[in-house]
Structure formats: C-alpha cells, structure tokens
Amino acid sequence: MTRKYNLFALGISITFLCMASCSRGTVPGRIDRLKAERDLAMGGGASGETATDKPVELGKKSKKSKSKKSKSTASNHHTVEKLPQPVKADPFLVDTAFANQTYDKLTQDYADTILAKPAERIKDVQYGEAFVGTTNFNLRKPQYVIIHHTSQNSLKQTVYTFTLERTQVSAHYVISRDGTVQHMLNDYLRAWQAGKGRWNNIDDMNSCSIGIELDNNGVEPFTDKQIDALLKVLQALKERFAIPQSNFIGHGDYAPVRKNDPNVNFPWAKLASKGFGYWYGDTTGVEVPKDFNEYLALRIIGYDVSDVSKAIIAFRRHFCGIESTAKVLSPAERKVLYKLYTKYL
Ligand SMILES: [Zn+2]
C-alpha cells in the first residue's frame, strides 16, 4: 500500500528544484538495502497510519456522518444537506520514519568510515607496521554558504522532495516564507545542493559549503520574516565556522551557466551590510580606467568566466538587482564591477 502510494506521489511530485544533483559517493547497494528494509518494516502494517489508509478511513467517517445528519434533518424540508467532500491525499506527506531511519543508517556508515584504522590504503605505498593515531584533531569546517531559492510552493513540498531518494538533492537548511527553519542535515556533513559549477578554483562546492534553501517560487520577492530567519542562521554559521565575509554567495554565482537562484529580488545589499558578502557602496564620482578588464575583474571576484556572458548575467543579478540577458555591461554596471573587484584584491 505504501509503496503504491509512493509511486503515485512520485509521479505527481514537482521536482524541478533549482538544486543540482552531484556525485553521491555512497556505498553501492546501500539504498537498495534500505528500501528492502523499509518494505519489510511497512509490510506488516507497523507504520499505523499510511498515506493510502488515511483517506479511506476519513471517507468511512464521512458516510456515517451523512447517515446521522439525514435522520436529524428529516423533518426539515428547507435544509440543504451538504454532501461529504472527497478527501484528497496529501501529495507531500513525508515518510518521516523512513527518512529518519535512512538518515541514522547513513550517518552510522560514515561514522564507521571515520573510525577505520587505518583509513583506505593507497596502492604501492609502504606503510609503517602499526597504526599510530595523532591525538590532535577535530572536524573540518565548511567555509562557504550557498543560498538558493527552491522554485517550489511550500516548505512542506521541499522537505518532501529532500526525503525522496530519486531526487538526489538536499540542503542543510530550508527556510519557509513565515521564517520557519527546517534543519535537515548536520552542518558537518555534505549536502547535495551546489552540483556542477566553479567559484574561484573550487569545483566541488558541496564538500566545503552549507546549503540554504529559501522557500520561493523562483520569481517572487522574499519575505521579511524569511530574511530575518536567514540572517540569524548566517550569523550562527559565520561565528561557528569562521566563514569569511566574501564566502556567502548564491547558487547562480557558483553555477551561472545552469542556475539563477536566488532570484533577482534577493536582498544582497542587506546581507552585505550585516557582514555576509561584499558590496560595492557608492559609485558616485568613480571613474573606470580605460584599460579596466571586466573579464579579469569577474575572475578575481570568483566567477567562472569560461562563459563570460553567463558570468556577467549572474554578476548583474547579484550586484545590480537586474535580470537581463544583455551580454555587455552598462557604464553604471561597469562602475559597480570596478569598485567591487578592488574589495577582493
Ligand atoms: Zn539552487
């Protein structure tokens, strides 16, 4: 029953998230094993209320209700009896038990990897006879924050998407329009959120960043409550992991060929004023040198300029608040770029 429902839900799920899949690095067969375990667990009806059971049960109650009401209003010919309304299945009902079971199993597997002594040996290397562990170490810390919009219609829909294995996408945090924060992955673990792209010389951003998804349909403005919640999360992350001010960027900055999030309404200036990302400030009186090289300036800021027109579009969206496919910077945009790049030197 559950499996049938899941297939149905998968079929209607909208999965055109802004996120990109990336290499998983999981142990082959692990997911199949987890699925088999889930099927075994669900087969006995142990989960109680399943998605398919729910509407059926409610439907029965509605019938009873109708029957009682018919008796009580039989003498009133002017009463228009309401027919029971069909109960729609929730298309984004998360299988929380399975999601958390999977989460626990995966974290245990990764813990086993960390505990291995010695770690995976390198071929043809002569190792010492005995493993001797150093006594001085701790966990590696993320050094970037990548901000996204979900291109979906609710936090619930995104949480649902992030608990479907087939989507192969995730993020550490999802922040709803009302400011509710859903923390879905330990900050020390690697979410599948940034995907293919490049910033500076980093092309595996998932390995060194925290991904934050903002619930947003892709074109609408972001709410004040949402941004306030984001700022609180960013402040905590910046302090906890000592993330440099320059390293708070958008998915569209990292992957300008594929992505445009967060959309042009995102308040980057406000974030920069709080210490998350740089801003160019006042360009009044700025004179751009005639030999100023836009290509190099974009590269110094961090953009991948292998497709420079895409880098220009991403830069313009982020720093000028303009969504345009124009391949050439305007004089005003050129001033912004000139003033901005000096902050990255
Ligand atoms: Zn994204």
TrEMBL record:
<keyword id="KW-0378">Hydrolase</keyword>
<keyword id="KW-0732">Signal</keyword>
<dbReference type="GO" id="GO:0008745">
    <property type="term" value="F:N-acetylmuramoyl-L-alanine amidase activity"/>
</dbReference>
<dbReference type="GO" id="GO:0009254">
    <property type="term" value="P:peptidoglycan turnover"/>
</dbReference>
<keyword id="KW-0961">Cell wall biogenesis/degradation</keyword>
<dbReference type="Pfam" id="PF01510">
    <property type="entry name" value="Amidase_2"/>
</dbReference>
<feature type="domain" description="N-acetylmuramoyl-L-alanine amidase">
    <location>
        <begin position="132"/>
        <end position="263"/>
    </location>
</feature>
<dbReference type="InterPro" id="IPR002502">
    <property type="entry name" value="Amidase_domain"/>
</dbReference>
<dbReference type="GO" id="GO:0019867">
    <property type="term" value="C:outer membrane"/>
</dbReference>
<feature type="signal peptide">
    <location>
        <begin position="1"/>
        <end position="20"/>
    </location>
</feature>
<feature type="region of interest" description="Disordered">
    <location>
        <begin position="42"/>
        <end position="82"/>
    </location>
</feature>
<feature type="compositionally biased region" description="Basic residues">
    <location>
        <begin position="61"/>
        <end position="71"/>
    </location>
</feature>
<dbReference type="GO" id="GO:0009253">
    <property type="term" value="P:peptidoglycan catabolic process"/>
</dbReference>
<protein>
    <recommendedName>
        <fullName>N-acetylmuramoyl-L-alanine amidase</fullName>
        <ecNumber>3.5.1.28</ecNumber>
    </recommendedName>
</protein>
<feature type="compositionally biased region" description="Basic and acidic residues">
    <location>
        <begin position="51"/>
        <end position="60"/>
    </location>
</feature>
<dbReference type="GO" id="GO:0071555">
    <property type="term" value="P:cell wall organization"/>
</dbReference>
<dbReference type="InterPro" id="IPR051206">
    <property type="entry name" value="NAMLAA_amidase_2"/>
</dbReference>
<dbReference type="InterPro" id="IPR036505">
    <property type="entry name" value="Amidase/PGRP_sf"/>
</dbReference>
